[in-house]
Amino acid sequence: MTHFTRRATLGLMGGAMTAPFVAKGAWAATPISVGALRFTSHAPSFIALERGYFAEAGIDVNFEFFQAAQPMAVAIASGDADYAMTAISGGLISLAQKGAAKVIGGALSEEQGIDGQKILASNAAYEAGLTDPSQLEGKSFGITQAGSSFHYMGSKIAQAEGAEVSFKPLQKTPAVIGAIKSGQIDAWSIVPHIAKPLAGAGAVQIIGDVADYIPDYQVTTVFTSAKNASDAPDQTRAFLQALSKGAADFNAALVDNTADDAERAEIIKLIAGYVYPDRSVEDARDSVVNGAMRINADCALNRASVMDQLDWFKSEGLVDQDIAYETLVDESYVDIIS
């Protein structure tokens, strides 16, 4: 297996859990770095750490925080992070083709009946007639990088509406937020815990739902280095098992609402500490609740959605045409939703 440094990886980007218990192994004394975004959708990993699920599985986790998906993929491939949970990107697919990364499970999903990602318009664009996605013709759409999940969503929405849009890469999520608030871009799509507070403050307008255009979208996946996937199966299963416990707590408290009030309050407080560290729990509460989309039980992966995303990247010329689904995904760790 080739060793990828972060510098080399950046150059490359240019071109079922069946056991109910995983015993602690030789990796127990080795810190595991987990890539994360300060998004509510990453809550299962925060819950798993704070509630001791990672420790119970014999792994010592620390977080490395990022502001976009593609740099996270770089970190996985270079060994600066061991596991991560984020959207499929062109960079991740290219790194998988180079033998540096593997998708090993599913995380955030769009699900009918659960409030999901929103399509936004700037106030200026809204006042000029962009009141629903059918009016996207000729408009600009914000993305972090070409080949990001924002690019995929924007393209699928525009395609469904028969609209030609221009994509503006702004590198980081905060930069996209600033651009839509100031009217430098016309439209964007983002998770509800960001969309709803922006709209509630009058900074943007919500004009549609991503789920209406991409039903059952596997928004984020769990991934790791190809080396971990092939050479560290016990460690990888331990990580996924602990992450699944965190996801179960999250879904019970904020999605299915089967947890009691005390448990719900505890989960909200825990998440707020990571996602909104500079805000009080009370101030952050609505934002946390608004971000509660389904996290797949047991990290199950939606194969059809991943294949659709891969096909889109190929159709746009963002990845090589001959890359296979099996090159991107290792299906041996989790159940598959077909």
Q: Strand pairing plus helix content: what structural class?
A: alpha/beta
CATH architecture of the largest domain: 3-Layer(aba) Sandwich
Order of helices and strands: HEHHEHEHEEEHEHEHEHEEHHHHEEHHE
Strand content: 15-25%
CATH class of the largest domain reads: Alpha Beta
In total, how many beta strands? Answer: 14
Anisotropy-based shape: globular
CATH topology term of the largest domain = D-Maltodextrin-Binding Protein, domain 2
What does this structure look like?
The protein has 338 residues and is an alpha/beta fold. It has 2 domains: 6-110 and 218-337, D-Maltodextrin-Binding Protein, domain 2, CATH 3.40.190.10; 118-212, D-Maltodextrin-Binding Protein, domain 2. Helices cover 43% and strands 17% of the residues. The chain contains 15 helices and 14 strands. It has helices spanning 6-14, 43-50, 53-56, 69-78, 90-97, 123-127, 149-160, 173-182, 192-200, 226-231, 233-255, 261-275, 281-290, 303-315, 325-328, and strands spanning 31-36, 60-65, 83-86, 102-106, 108-109, 118-122, 140-143, 166-169, 187-190, 204-209, 221-224, 294-295, 301-302, 336-337. Strands 2-1-3-11-4 form a 5-stranded mixed beta sheet. Helix 7 (149-160) links the parallel strand 7 (140-143) and strand 8 (166-169). Helix 4 (69-78) packs parallel to helix 5 and helix 11 crosses helix 12 (261-275). The radius of gyration is 19 Å and the shape is globular. It starts with 5 loop residues before the first helix and ends with a strand.
